[in-house]
DNA sequence: TATGAATGAGATTTCATTCAT
DNA sequence: GATGAATGAAATCTCATTCAT
């Protein structure tokens, strides 16, 4: 409201700088000075725009969650059939599109670990997970229903798929050399497909 | 005359204290003082037995990897058939047995994030991942072969399954409230089972 | 709007405080807290202006070397004849003028010992020695030439004179009670004088 | 007296280890563990044979001073004439013989710096300097007298020569690359020779 | 808004010395 | 004599946060 015009831009700039710095150094070693340097700002200014370093992290978690939500909305707009939407979703998350921003992926992994100990981060992380779970469940239920299958296992299947996604991020960030390239999206799609095919009819 | 060395037990004690402390506070906030207090030792003694805090972490990574390897060996001894061995493996990793040590799981998640930025941790983490991948691939290949299926996709399937496991640990540690309980092991088993069933014959 | 930088004066202040503290306690016992106290600053601030304690030492070495260089320039400006310049130089270094800052002399002695083990200090120390050697050689060559003597031994003579100077500093700092007072400058001048007189003509 | 047979040998072993370690790391960084390792002993044993680390240093200073004294006695035994004895002394101190143990030279330089701040070391250092001064003065007086010269300046000349020696050690240890090789002994001898030659007759 | 110096709490690490065995 | 673990004090360094300008 009373913020000067460039405030929002500054905040975004700082949040992005935290993302970049965290992907490289982790959260604790992403010092205010390093973040400021990356953002091409001065340390003092970061505390003008954010109350604390933890606040920047929180803003980042929310920004990443919002970006995911955004991708969902873009996806939901298309009036594709259920199977195509599910396929598109998996590709968006695990395909080359996601791999195109390894920094965000690494930052997300670091955030996941911070969620283990920081209650506020955990809350934001859980909220993002809940949102994603709801979306996934919806996509899977629709796909199951379209095949005339029971939807009772949609929840558990969504959880397994989400875990696979999070684990893929983890492994891509921490052990890229050990994983076969490009395996994730097609294999996930096929696992889901065959699971659905084998489900009993409704 | 001379004093009896007790380094090995002290080191184990310290490593265990790091595990406990890390599970609760993360790596950076697991200070030497906290670790020492948990181990009921003085801070100086930690640096007598380990060169640095990073060294304790490295020892922990190796200990956890060795423990996993140990579970594999125990498993391999049993002369179960391929399917039973695969099922037992998944249960051991994702079932209640694994859940019985949530501390180790949380520590592993934190280690995964540290691997993003610490080269030496990354190397040890990757080694553990490689070992696990090799084991998983062997189990899956055997199961596929036993069904008379092609084994070409064993590698990608192993990667997907490993990702699902790592992601399950992550979600169990950081967003336990959001996940359906006990979903992981049976759902993973079923996904793999149906995938294998749908593979073409060799 | 923005704050005016004062780093240069702070750095000089800190370097001077290290000099004072080192002259009294040596390098290792010149702790950050002691230096800060002497400079009337907080310990943290020292690390804001210098990366490490070793960096302060390096700055001190360079400052002392620069001060010596400065004295040379002031000396060179005077258009005295060769003999007078040489005499003035020896007096400036070994006479009461130099003795007027026993702190700097003691600090220089301590630096010489640190140069034995710290490569970066050694490099800076060597550079100072090289500069001094070049100057001395020039002064001696001019004096020899003015007398019509060969200048082949100017280098070795310069080395001997420099050694005498360094040793005088050492003895003045570590064993002042054992040395005859005020012997250094006149005796050095006379030794050089008689050496030159006895050199063969060019 | 009541010490066990190997005590003296152990002490010598430890003192030598301090010398070696100090030459490389300086006094403060020559830790008990490093010294013990160099002596192939255990840390605890060092404090059995010496009350404190400072005590080992003191023993080292005395050992080095005694070794110099020893060289004097060996020298004095020879019934050379005054000039030859002086020449032999300078060679023994500054010639290749001395350069053959650069470790002892470096240790002596470090001791000189420690003498700036440690009273007990200073006392021992001064005693060594006094002894050396007395010897030098005697040699110079004898040489002057043998030439029929006045001996009034023997003290100041001895001081200058001692300073040159100490400075040579300093420069050889801290700036070896900057000094002409082998300059020290012949140049010192020549400086003294020409000084004496130019002295007035008694 | 913006700067950058300044603070102070706290972290890791070092190490002489002690001491039970 | 000998060992090596243990202690505790102290050192360097880090860094989020504050604040005068």
Automatic annotation (TrEMBL), chains A, B, C, D:
Molecular function (GO) terms listed? DNA binding
- Classification via PROSITE patterns: HTH_TETR_1 (PS01081), HTH_TETR_2 (PS50977)
The UniProt entry, under InterPro entries, shows: BetI_C, DNA-bd_HTH_TetR-type_CS, Homeodomain-like_sf, HTH_TetR, Tet_transcr_reg_TetR-rel_C_sf
Which residues carry the record's DNA-binding region feature? Answer: 31-50
Q: Which UniProt keywords apply?
A: DNA-binding, Repressor, Transcription, Transcription regulation
Domain HTH tetR-type as annotated: residue spans: 8-68
Q: Which Pfam families match?
A: TetR_C_6, TetR_N
Any keyword Ribosomal protein? no
Taxonomic superkingdom: Bacteria
Protein name listed in UniProt? HTH tetR-type domain-containing protein
Q: Could you tell me which species this protein originates from? A: Massilia violaceinigra
Q: What is the lineage of its organism?
A: Bacteria, Pseudomonadati, Pseudomonadota, Betaproteobacteria, Burkholderiales
